[in-house]
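Action item from last week, closing it out:
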Amino acid sequence: MQTKIPPPIVTLIFVGILYLSNSLITPFELAYQSVIGIFLILSGLGILIASVRVFRKVGTTVNPVDPDQASMLVVEGPFTFSRNPMYLGMSEILIGFGFIFGAWLTLPIVALFMIYITIFQILPEEAVMKEKFADYDEYCSKVRRWI
């Protein structure tokens, strides 16, 4: 299975799906829902940025479309609590947009995003990491795929 669509683009597509879901179900309204949404988006961006910084610090690629370019197994920073903190951050960003839009279908749509990313992004990446890095199985035994 080959990764084709960069995950940030997939995330934007799912933001659009969240927005369009409001045409199916009337949006909800909560006090401070925009504030909650912005907080979640900023928190998700923080996880993404922290993850990218670790990749750059150790000198490996952040290109998710070609995992063969990875030169090092990253196991520090956010990668100590999740093998995929970037995708976790993207999921949190989606939840934030769900709050802003008042989308009742946020959780099922985020679940679909996570399934899509797992099948078309994470599993191909894991196959490459397992082949390239002898200590990958040990890392997997200590750190969960998502959280």
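Closing note: The chain is about 65% helix and 0% strand.
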